[in-house]
Amino acid sequence: MHLRTTGFYHVLRKQVPQRSPVFARRITTASSSSQSSARTAIYATVLTASVGLFAVYYYDARSAMHRYVLTPALRHTFDAETGHRIAVKVLRSGLGPRDPVQDDERLRSEFWGRELSNPVGLAAGFDKDGEAIDGILNLGFSWVEIGSVTPKPQPGNPKPRVFHLPDDAALINRYGFPSQGAASMISRLRARIPKFHETKDDTTAAFKPGSVLAINLGKNKSSPVESPDDFVTGVKMFGPYADVLVVNVSSPNTPGLRGLQNRELLEDLLTSVMKARDELEPSPITARRPRLVLKIAPDLEESQIIDIADLIRKSNIDGVIVSNTTISRPASLTDPNKSEIGGLSGAPLKPRALQALKTLRAHVPASIPLIGCGGISTGADALDYARAGASLVQVYTGFGYDGVGTCRRIKDELEALLKAENTTWKAVVDESVRKFSLTES
């Protein structure tokens, strides 16, 4: 039995081929290669998914990373002006975040009979040369104001000229109208016009339903202080490309500019720009002439505001923005940069700007809309201006501190406040304007 078994074993060994060491190594290598390919595929899938999720998170303007990570990092890594330029370039590139939420009906606003999707705009000073209009509109603003733009290029004031006051949620700037000039901005505005543009009743220069484009007109530093010519030139050059033209006589950083708010000079200025506007052909983009809006300072005495109101009534100017930055320095300021020269904006400006708006509202009729600007960073701030008689509001410094989600956050807060009171933005504005405006005889 043992011999037969042993013989059978030897026969079996001869019949069954044995794997060579080389063949075994090939099997092992193939197995390892297969496992490595599987791991690579898994890693690639995870990486792709991670990048996709990050992109979704990044492109949503509401993402906390913008307010609490990216914007503070930009502010602390670079000086104020460099950070500002980087933000503009990102929004210009098309790689900026977007507001993905449709505006609630409660936020609907009316301006000169035109319906806007919400009352929140971005003030002039952020996009000085019209580089990032569409990137800003994508953040949910209904009113984008570019500039100030001057007829001829100019460098503005010497650097440094922008200073953060984080302890006070404020900013001081003395830019002095740095501008690439009118020709440069016009070339960008022309490039935005759709190739197959068709003018309709609701067409605006923003090329976005429920939104408008405003252009803030500035004055060259080298121009005669008392002359309105730069503003007249601006009206003629930019009239075809804007829904609104803003006559800026209130920047504190151009010598003599605020002097144009004095009665005699302002009367001549308003007469000149209104004449230039009325002589324009209707825009080939909107089939309308642009509205003309005056932007005033918050540092005017009450008697000066009353004088300006009288001129506004006589000139048929279309509206007023209240206000620009202030040269005052409230005692509440604590930041070391509070002593810098220039215009102060942000939270400390709100009481002064709001009071100026209330004074003006009481001395102009309901037919003249006011736009509130100064220290607005929350829905409650915006509602304060509406209750004082402002039809729209603009943000600036709050946008710089809180980042690309600022507009959506203000709108969400405002919507919640209006819902709690069972009212709408338009209803609040209509009631306030009716209550506080000058009664026309």
Automatic annotation (TrEMBL):
Pathway: Pyrimidine metabolism; UMP biosynthesis via de novo pathway; orotate from (S)-dihydroorotate (quinone route): step 1/1. Its cofactor is FMN. GO terms for molecular function: dihydroorotate dehydrogenase (quinone) activity. InterPro entries: Aldolase_TIM (IPR013785), DHO_dehydrogenase (IPR050074), Dihydroorotate_DH_2 (IPR005719), Dihydroorotate_DH_cat (IPR005720), Dihydroorotate_DH_CS (IPR001295). It holds the Pfam family DHO_dh. Its main location: membrane. GO terms for biological process: 'de novo' pyrimidine nucleobase biosynthetic process; pyrimidine ribonucleotide biosynthetic process. Its EC number is 1.3.5.2. It is a single-pass membrane protein. Binds 1 FMN per subunit. It comes from the Eukaryota. It catalyses: (S)-dihydroorotate + a quinone = orotate + a quinol. It is found in: Membrane; Mitochondrion inner membrane. Keywords: Flavoprotein, FMN, Membrane, Mitochondrion, Mitochondrion inner membrane, Oxidoreductase. GO terms for cellular component: mitochondrial inner membrane. Residues 107-418 form the Dihydroorotate dehydrogenase catalytic domain. Belongs to the dihydroorotate dehydrogenase family. Type 2 subfamily. NCBIfam families: PRK05286.1-2, PRK05286.2-5, pyrD_sub2. This is Dihydroorotate dehydrogenase (quinone), mitochondrial.
